[in-house]
């Protein structure tokens, strides 16, 4: 399928995947619909029998029907066995993958405005279906034809992008190459324009070392690689601040001076955003030919099926998907 622009008359709904049925994805879909009814149209792709008992839903045949549904719209994808909260089923794995593929296809065809993904469990997918990807992000990049993607975490007042993600801290200096950092910064810059409607993005870039190296006293990466790269990117027209000392980048006055912060490794980026808004953070994949957001939490097997799951992050992810999808639509109109 090829990418298509949504109708100029009315934006299509967002495709929400069920994720791992044994997790909290089925638990939070209904509360998210109640919170967003009439504001952010979306539909769930999955097996309605996996929803908690008493969840009101409307089975739909096409995404467009979600726009007028009075209860949670479900585009049915039948799974081969019942849900067992907290206990992933091997026979569910191929269907979880197929649901993600269906959501992407609907987004790329224009029937869905964006994709929002509930959490998956990578080991369960590997054991049950030979899933060969580290996670959602890499699989979505594969479905997009091998796109260069970047992970952003966002909440009200802060967007952060880690240049390196799930690797040991000892491996960061080697993994943090000039080419990688340039790709991350350029992808972030382009996404802020296309997906967040920021005409002239301001990006703060952290240093790798304490105090951004303090003139070489605490490390040479800033002098030898990061600063020369930022100077070259500034010559291309990018508005960049840094490299900055990471311990002074995230207080309120500092955050007011930029639209996104590019950090050098996982915790440097995620500690500030999870401190500011632990429940409401959103995971965004930048660089895809479609919009993708996700709640910033895992499957939470320990509370699945107990009515204790908090839908706040999913609600925020759906709202952001709507905003980003609208931005792309308005740019293409």
UniProtKB/TrEMBL annotation:
<dbReference type="Pfam" id="PF04166">
    <property type="entry name" value="PdxA"/>
</dbReference>
<comment type="function">
    <text>Catalyzes the NAD(P)-dependent oxidation of 4-(phosphooxy)-L-threonine (HTP) into 2-amino-3-oxo-4-(phosphooxy)butyric acid which spontaneously decarboxylates to form 3-amino-2-oxopropyl phosphate (AHAP).</text>
</comment>
<keyword id="KW-0664">Pyridoxine biosynthesis</keyword>
<keyword id="KW-0520">NAD</keyword>
<feature type="binding site">
    <location>
        <position position="137"/>
    </location>
    <ligand>
        <name>substrate</name>
    </ligand>
</feature>
<keyword id="KW-0479">Metal-binding</keyword>
<feature type="binding site">
    <location>
        <position position="266"/>
    </location>
    <ligand>
        <name>a divalent metal cation</name>
    </ligand>
</feature>
<feature type="binding site">
    <location>
        <position position="283"/>
    </location>
    <ligand>
        <name>substrate</name>
    </ligand>
</feature>
<feature type="binding site">
    <location>
        <position position="166"/>
    </location>
    <ligand>
        <name>a divalent metal cation</name>
    </ligand>
</feature>
<keyword id="KW-0170">Cobalt</keyword>
<feature type="binding site">
    <location>
        <position position="274"/>
    </location>
    <ligand>
        <name>substrate</name>
    </ligand>
</feature>
<comment type="pathway">
    <text>Cofactor biosynthesis; pyridoxine 5'-phosphate biosynthesis; pyridoxine 5'-phosphate from D-erythrose 4-phosphate: step 4/5.</text>
</comment>
<feature type="binding site">
    <location>
        <position position="292"/>
    </location>
    <ligand>
        <name>substrate</name>
    </ligand>
</feature>
<comment type="subunit">
    <text>Homodimer.</text>
</comment>
<dbReference type="InterPro" id="IPR005255">
    <property type="entry name" value="PdxA_fam"/>
</dbReference>
<feature type="binding site">
    <location>
        <position position="211"/>
    </location>
    <ligand>
        <name>a divalent metal cation</name>
    </ligand>
</feature>
<dbReference type="InterPro" id="IPR037510">
    <property type="entry name" value="PdxA"/>
</dbReference>
<comment type="similarity">
    <text>Belongs to the PdxA family.</text>
</comment>
<feature type="binding site">
    <location>
        <position position="136"/>
    </location>
    <ligand>
        <name>substrate</name>
    </ligand>
</feature>
<keyword id="KW-0460">Magnesium</keyword>
<keyword id="KW-0862">Zinc</keyword>
<keyword id="KW-0963">Cytoplasm</keyword>
<keyword id="KW-0560">Oxidoreductase</keyword>
<protein>
    <recommendedName>
        <fullName>4-hydroxythreonine-4-phosphate dehydrogenase</fullName>
        <ecNumber>1.1.1.262</ecNumber>
    </recommendedName>
</protein>
<keyword id="KW-0521">NADP</keyword>
């Amino acid at each position: 399928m090829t990418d298509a622009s949504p109708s100029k008359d009315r934006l299509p709904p967002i495709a929400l995947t069920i994720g791992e049925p044994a997790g909290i994805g089925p638990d939070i879909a209904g509360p998210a619909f109640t919170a967003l009814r009439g504001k952010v149209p979306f539909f769930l792709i999955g097996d309605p029998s996996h929803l908690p008992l008493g969840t009101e839903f409307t089975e739909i045949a096409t995404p467009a029907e979600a726009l007028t549904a009075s209860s949670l719209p479900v585009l049915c994808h039948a799974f081969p066995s019942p849900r067992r909260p907290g206990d992933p089923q091997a026979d569910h794995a191929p269907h979880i993958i197929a649901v993600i593929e269906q959501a992407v296809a609907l987004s790329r065809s224009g029937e869905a405005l964006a994709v929002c993904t509930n959490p998956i469990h990578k080991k369960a997918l590997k054991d049950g279906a030979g899933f060969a990807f580290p996670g959602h992000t890499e699989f979505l990049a594969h479905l997009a034809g091998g796109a260069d993607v970047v992970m952003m975490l966002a909440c009200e007042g802060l967007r952060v992008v880690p240049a390196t993600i799930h690797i040991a801290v000892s491996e960061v200096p080697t993994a943090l190459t000039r080419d990688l950092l340039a790709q991350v910064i350029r992808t972030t810059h382009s996404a802020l324009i296309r997906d967040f409607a920021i005409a002239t993005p301001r990006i703060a870039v952290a240093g790798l070392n304490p105090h951004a190296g303090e003139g070489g006293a605490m490390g040479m990466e800033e002098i030898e690689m990061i600063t020369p790269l930022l100077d070259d990117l500034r010559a291309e027209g990018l508005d960049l601040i840094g490299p900055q000392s990471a311990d002074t980048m995230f207080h309120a006055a500092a955050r007011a001076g930029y639209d996104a912060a590019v950090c050098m490794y996982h915790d440097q980026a995620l500690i500030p955003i999870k401190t500011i808004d632990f429940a409401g953070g959103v995971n965004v994949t930048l660089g895809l030919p479609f919009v993708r957001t996700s709640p910033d939490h895992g499957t939470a097997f320990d509370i699945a099926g107990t009515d204790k799951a908090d839908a706040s992050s999913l609600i925020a992810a759906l709202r952001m998907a709507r905003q980003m999808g609208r931005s792309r639509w308005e740019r293409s109109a």
